[in-house]
Write a structure and sequence with these properties.
By secondary structure, this protein is an alpha/beta fold. The chain has ten helices and twelve strands. Helix 8 links the parallel strand 11 and strand 12.
Length: about 280
Amino acid sequence: MKLSGSTRVLGIFGDPVAHSLSPRMHNAALAAAGIDAIYVPFHVTPDNLAGAIQALRALSLWGVNLTVPHKEAVLPLLDRVTEQARLIGAVNTVTHEDGYLVGHNTDAPGFLHALGVDLGFVPAKKKILVLGAGGASRAALVALAQAGAATIVIANRTPARARLLCESFSAFFPGTDFACSSLDAGELCQFFAGVDLLVNTSAMGLKGESCAHLPWHCLPEAACVYDMVYARGKTSLQIEAEKRGHSTADGRGMLIAQGEAAFALWTGQESPSGVMADSILTE
């Protein structure tokens, strides 16, 4: 990588951010495309998000991705937000356009793409249970509802937050039945009945902690499990699910798909085919 006085800067804001694979795949794509730019991780705590967004503007950064816990908090700090991102209520990509900061969400299409490619799963007319009620959850909910899911259950540590999402999205997507649950094993067990897909959008297992506490015995054997968390090897959720015969995938497929979409927004061109995937799926 050759840096010059005209090298443009892209990056990712997150807390934590050291685990992110985004720098590896974006730098590989930038190099393959011959673009004079670099993508770097920025550890930004919630208290410093507003300052970091101002720095993006002041330093003329080309754009950034946003990860946990900034996807929702960033909305009021931007000049404009796309209709899709506004509906989701979360932004994962910011473009810097002639001094204006514009928020986008590439998570929703990236998620649907990954479900199809990695699990062969089509949401139409299916029952899906989503763990978590944050920005990543909102993207998954919009994607699943737009794809025709029959029933979506939102399970969250704070049930009130899950209820708010149920009420909000029920109004937008009358063709999908929404329900909410706590993470209490007894209550969750009832909602696991008939589930075709279990999706983890929360930070559960991000630090390698066990996911054995979930009521796995209540989840139908044919159910697939998609974990937006990713790690070297299998995630904790995948390990527990595969012990019980479930087909699983981690968040790398979604990461690649949403990354390719973000790359196109920043650069105005498609990411070189297969480069992002090769950079993180092969060591």
